[in-house]
TrEMBL record:
Lineage, opening ranks: Bacteria, Pseudomonadati, Pseudomonadota, Alphaproteobacteria, Rhodobacterales
Cleavable signal peptide: none
Pfam families, per the entry: HEM4
Gene3D superfamilies: 3.40.50.10090
InterPro entries: 4pyrrol_syn_uPrphyn_synt_sf, 4pyrrol_synth_uPrphyn_synth
Limits of the Tetrapyrrole biosynthesis uroporphyrinogen III synthase domain: 32-231
GO MF annotation list: uroporphyrinogen-III synthase activity
A biological process from GO: tetrapyrrole biosynthetic process
Protein name as annotated: Uroporphyrinogen-III synthase
Length: 237
């Protein structure tokens, strides 16, 4: 029997744990997961006015969690970038719909539901966000505004993960965003750790590009964005 491959996850603790559970359910025994969050999510305390809003936009489960933490009861529809974010929104009691793709797909979904005379959509987001969702909606004639209710603070790679890298005992890294990919790449360069046998599996071409400069032994990009697409890509390594 082959030993499980050691997989590094660098998302925040709860998101990493949820992904690890889904991965083990889909591919039981294939991976031994090491979690080392490289991002800390903290609320900004920014005001959130939904009085004129006609809907909510979510591009991350972090946004859903931070919105839910405010205890705002709303019947507004929640348009979500993918299944993972939509599941988090439904668990928070929101009426959620998944775009099943990327920011462009989310813009298309939200624009199709928006009617003339409807109020603006509100993008619940962090200070750092991939893609120009507001711009994509503006190009479709849909008013939208951002609400930056949380910050993504960088965290160093943990000592367990660092020791595993130094000893060549990380087999696979999962890359969930360009920003987290770049942070992990910088940590590997700073540590001087070998990557010749490392496999990187990215959720998107942008996440892959942010890590590609390291020239890992093998690079894989998910054919479809989101949790299911990434798990399908991991099935092939």
């Amino acid at each position: 029997m082959h030993r499980p491959k050691t997989l590094l996850l660098t998302r925040p603790e709860r998101q990493s744990a949820a992904f690890a559970r889904a991965l083990d359910a889909a591919l039981p025994g294939r991976f031994a997961v090491t979690v080392s969050p490289m991002t800390r999510i903290s609320p900004t305390g920014a005001p959130l006015d939904l009085a004129d809003a006609s809907g909510l936009l979510f591009t991350s489960a972090n946004g859903v969690e931070q919105f839910a933490a405010r205890g705002i009861a709303t019947a507004l529809p929640a348009y979500c970038v993918g299944a993972m974010t939509a599941a988090a929104a439904r668990a928070a009691g929101l009426r959620a719909e998944s775009a099943g793709g990327d920011v462009a797909a989310l813009a298309a979904l939200a624009a199709a539901a928006h009617r003339p005379g409807d109020g603006p959509l509100v993008h619940i987001r962090g200070r750092h966000a991939a893609g120009d969702l507001i711009g994509l909606l503006a190009a479709r004639g849909v008013p939208a505004r951002p609400a930056e209710i949380y910050a993504q603070e960088p965290e160093p790679l943990g000592p367990e993960a660092a020791a595993r890298f130094a000893g060549g005992r990380i087999d696979v890294v999962a890359l969930f965003s360009p920003r987290s990919s770049a942070a992990l790449a910088a940590a590997i360069v700073a540590g001087g750790w070998p990557v010749g046998d490392l496999v990187s599996v990215a959720i998107s071409p942008a996440a892959d590009a942010a890590f590609a400069g390291l020239s890992p032994g093998r690079r894989v990009v998910a054919e479809a964005p989101g949790r299911a697409g990434l798990i399908a890509a991991l099935a092939g390594v």
